[in-house]
Structure formats: C-alpha cells, structure tokens
Amino acid sequence: MSEDCIFCQIVNKKIPAFRIYEDERSLAIADINPVTEGHVLVLPKNHAATLMELTPGDIAAVHQASQKVAQALMKSLKPGGIAVLQLNGAAAGQVVMHYHIHLIPRNPPKDNIKFLNWEIKPGDMKAIEKTAAKIKEAF
Fold first, then answer.
1. Could you read off the pLDDT of 116-133 as tens digits, one per residue?
2. d(C-alpha 46, C-alpha 80), whole Å
3. Catalytic annotation on 100?
4. DSSP reduced 3-state for 105
5. pTM for this one?
6. Which of 8, 26, 47, 48 is within CB 3.0–4.6 Å of 53 for a Cys-Cys bond?
7. What residues have CB less than 8 Å from 82, skipping those under 6 apart?
C-alpha cells in the first residue's frame, strides 16, 4: 500500500467510493469523473503503478474482474460496446499512479468521444519491421 495513493486509500476504505465489484485481489469502482454513464475503474488491491510492475496474479485478477464488470455493464446499461482503456505513466495520460483499467460504455455517435476515434492509415512496412525487431531483441 502507498499511503499517498488515492486508490490504496479507497481499497482500505479510508475514503469512500461507489464499489461495484470486489474479490480478494481486485476492486471495481464507479469513476467519479465519468466519460460516459457507467464508466468504471478496475484496479488491483495491491499497489503497482503500471502494467510493468504488476504481478502475474494481479494482472489475471484485474482482467478477470474487468470481464465480469463488462458483462454487468452490457446487461444493465445495454451500450453499443465498451472501450477498455489502460494508461501507463504520465506521458501516456495516467493521472493516478496505481494501475487501473477504464471500462467506458460506448454509444457513438451520441457519446461523441473523440480520443477513442483515430484514423487508420497504412504504415511503413520497413519501419514497422525494424521497430518490431528492436522490441523482440529486448526479450
């Protein structure tokens, strides 16, 4: 636990939250700054800032909980779909430095979320191959 982490404080019930789902390793809460109705955050109970710091067990628990919450969102709110968003580090837009997954119910074009819509354009295959090889070497 990190004493100054808001999500750790929520996990430990030091500050309130709208708890939606909870198991031994994960917690799902309503986002208090929702992008759309039903926006939920799913997080591990153990503190880890990013994907790279999570234990394999916590990764599995958070993703299994995300699936259960997504099913409940589909059943209760009946959105057209659900965006699953996860950010790592401030440069990626992460604000709370405790790993979490955003489940964002979608009903385009009504919800008008621009950041989840990008133009698909063909990439430079030689550059992609070079980058893929560089990443593969890091293993």
1. 677 788 999 999 999 999
2. 32
3. yes
4. strand
5. 0.92
6. 48
7. 70, 73, 74, 103, 104, 105, 106
